[in-house]
Amino acid sequence: MVTKTEGRYAAGFVLSEAAGARSRDNGVLVTGQDLKAGQVLMDNGAGKLTAFTVTENSDGSLETEAKGILLYNVDATSADVDVSYFARDGEVNLHELTYPEETSEGGEEAHTIASLALLGIIARQ
C-alpha cells in the first residue's frame, strides 16, 4: 500500500478570522527563502518579511516579535516576492504552524505563542 502525505494548503491553519480582510495584510518576503503556508514571520529590520527566529538577550530573556503567518507556499529563493499574511485578530491551529524548534534552554514555542497573541492571533492546540 502506498502512503501519501498531504502538503500544506493555503491558509489551512486558520480556524477563525475577523470579518472581511481585516485579519490579513500584504508585505514583501525577502530573497533567499522557500517557505510553506503556516510559517510564522517577522520583520527583517528593513521592512521586509522573513522566517521567524527567536533571539536570546544577554540576560536570558527572549526577544523578537512575530509579524504574522504566511498564508500560502512561497518560493523567494531568487527574488523578493509580494505576499499576503495573517496579521491580526483570529485563531490558528498551532500544529499547522512552522516556528523555531525548542532548544535545550526551551521557551521558543511559548515565546512564539505569546508573540502571536500580541497581534491578537490565538494559537490553539
Q: Concise description?
A:
By secondary structure, the chain is mainly β. The chain has one helix and twelve strands. The mean pLDDT is 91.
CATH fold-level assignment: Virus Head Decoration Protein, Chain: A
**Secondary-structure element sequence?**
EEEEEEEEEEEHE
- Percent of residues in helices comes to under 10%
- Decide which structural class fits the backbone: mainly beta
What distance lies between the first and last C-alpha atoms, to the nearest angstrom? Answer: 31 Å
User: CATH class, anyone?
Assistant: Mainly Beta
Oligomer: single chain
Strand content: 35-45%
Q: What is the gyration radius calculated from CA atoms? A: 15 Å
Count up the domains: 1
**Order of adjacent strands in the largest pleated sheet:** 2-10-8-4-5
Biggest sheet features:
5 strands, antiparallel
Silhouette: globular
Could you tell me the number of beta strands?
Answer: 12
Low-confidence stretches: none
What is the overall pLDDT average? 91
CATH homolog superfamily: Head decoration protein D
Number of helices: 1
CATH architectural label: Beta Barrel
Structure commentary:
The strands form four sheets. The chain has a five-stranded antiparallel β-sheet, with no helix packed on it. It is built from one helix and twelve strands; from the N terminus they run E-E-E-E-E-E-E-E-E-E-E-H-E. 29% of the residues are buried. The chain has one domain: Virus Head Decoration Protein, Chain: A, CATH 2.40.300.10. With 125 residues, it is mostly beta strands. It starts with 13 loop residues before the first strand and ends with a strand. The mean pLDDT is 91. The chain has one helix spanning 108-117; strands spanning 14-17, 24-29, 33-35, 40-43, 49-51, 55-56, 62-63, 68-70, 74-76, 81-86, 90-93, 121-124. Helix 1 (108-117) links the parallel strand 11 and strand 12 (121-124).
